[in-house]
Amino acid sequence: MTRFLSALIDAVLPRSCLGCQRPDVAVCATCWAAVAQPRAFRPDPCPPGLPPTFVAGEYDGVLRTAVLAAKERGRSDLLPLLAAALTGAVANVAPGAGAVLLVPVPSTPAAVRRRGGDHMRALARRTALELQHAGRPAAVVPALRLVRTPLDSAGLTAAERARNLDGVFAADVDVARLAAGARLVLVDDVVTTGTTLTQAARALRACGVRVSAAAVAGTARWHRDRLSR
Ligand SMILES: [Zn+2]
């Protein structure tokens, strides 16, 4: 089914909670309270150089459904909810009231074309708004780019995945100037082995900045899903 068609069906069908099907709500408060529980994330094995990372919840159930619907089905109505969750994770990894710079992990050009936009950049923008509403200076700096296209990570072992992503990101050298006096937080939707965040952090550290990371959801069962960038 094309993305357009699925978006059209989503628009026409009456909406109900992704968890319990209660009508007229994208995700009801009860289902959301059960999934949005920020916690530190540390995969096992943990890749050397993984920045301190918080996730908003387990990549399972309603949270997983919501992430996939926003990412692959164009359900932009779920962005505020996911941004609120990500804001909680960001606040945990970068406590205090100081300025926050959010650096979204970039998607491949093919994924951006397929999805009709860069969902992580949109989610980061919305998260910056949430932080601002909470009285915290925040901005999005798309300081990372892919220097080559990695293979699809589905089916790769942790070691193969690490090799596949080795040196794949480059950072804008200007990021050190922009990040002066602010907390820089890498943001992603799903963290699995931690390889992506580790490589992204490495590129940023090469520019002389300190990095922490936050994701909407974390899972150790990274092989179960097709997690394309
Ligand atoms: Zn519900």
Write the layout of secondary structure elements.
Layout: H1 3-12, H2 29-35, E1 39-40, E2 53-55, H3 61-72, H4 79-93, E3 100-104, H5 109-115, H6 119-133, E4 138-140, E5 144-146, H7 158-165, E6 169-171, H8 175-179, E7 183-191, H9 195-205, E8 212-218
Parallel strand pairs: 2-8, 3-4, 3-7, 7-8
Antiparallel strand pairs: 1-2, 5-6
Helix pairs in contact: 4-6
The structure holds zinc ion.
What is the CATH architecture term? 3-Layer(aba) Sandwich
The CATH first-level class comes to Alpha Beta
Strand order of the largest sheet: 1-2-8-7-3-4
Largest β-sheet summary:
6 strands, mixed
Name the overall outline: globular
Contiguous uncertain segments of 5+ residues: 222-227
What Rg do the Cα atoms give?
17 Å
What is the percentage of strand-forming residues? 15-25%
The tally of domains stands at 1
Arithmetic mean pLDDT: 88
* Tally of helical segments: 9
Structural features, described:
β7, α9 (195-205) and β8 (212-218) form a beta-alpha-beta unit. α4 crosses α6 (119-133). The protein is 39% helix and 15% strand. Residues 222-227 have low confidence and may be disordered. The longest helix has 15 residues, at 79-93. The chain has nine helices and eight strands. The protein has one domain (36-218): 3-Layer(aba) Sandwich (Rossmann fold), CATH 3.40.50. The two termini are 20 Å apart. The chain is α/β, with parallel strands linked by helices and 229 residues long. The protein has a six-stranded mixed sheet with strand order 1-2-8-7-3-4, with helices on both faces. A two-stranded antiparallel ribbon has the order 5-6. It has helices at residues 3-12, 29-35, 61-72, 79-93, 109-115, 119-133, 158-165, 175-179, 195-205, and strands spanning 39-40, 53-55, 100-104, 138-140, 144-146, 169-171, 183-191, 212-218. Residues 17, 19-20, 22, 28, 30-31 line the site of zinc ion (ZN).
